[in-house]
Amino acid sequence: MSRRLFKGAALACALSASPLADALAQDCCAVVELRQYTMYPGKRDELISLFEERFIESQEAVGMRIAATFRDLAGPDRFVWVRGFADMQARHEALTAFYYGPVWQANRERANATLEDNDNVLLLKPAFAGSGFTLDGLVRPALGSNGAGRLVAATIYYLRADTLPGFALAFQREMAPLLERNGARILAQYVSEKSRNTFARLPVREKEYVFVSFAAFDDADAYVRQQRALAADGSWRGVLAAHAADMARAPETLLLQPTARSLVR
Q: What is the pTM of this model?
């Protein structure tokens, strides 16, 4: 996939009435994309400005939901964002409408000129009913609003296919309570969505099996305090040791600052 194709935001869910729909009522979306972009040096704020002005409402108008947009605090040229969809068919329809539509066509050259790499994409679904982002009642800040001072830590646990279900349960029952006891506010928990990619023009990392946790902190200092507390917590060290064999490789943590118009903040 060429970096010349810019990849978008997140979709509002429209689940039909059913027991499953009721169970997922709290979740923003049944399918989400976690998108990590690397910009050309000095181009991140240019893309964010264009994104917040032109690409939020225009994507939501065709069936997506822009849940979150972030600056990566560890990388001055990295932009991370999350968009969601009602299901995989809705993803295909919404992406087709947007990327072949007038707003993208009019602005794609400006967007693509900022992008060094935009193929780092994980396709996810809520790990449990109600574990996805809850956006009901949130109002998106207006264009030109001040950014949020909070920090969001997104931790990606890379697992083997056979250990993913068990790890997800262990995180919910054992790890999440310890994280929250030490200062985190868990926002969402996701696992890999292994359905066929219904919009092949935008690739995803299909070979990965991941569990992704999003947690909020008042600021970076609060995150540092939590990490120190966890390092001293024997229970946390024990849980990590118990599940070390589940990992395909070491976890990755993204330290993220919400942009001015992000709903998740």
A: 0.89
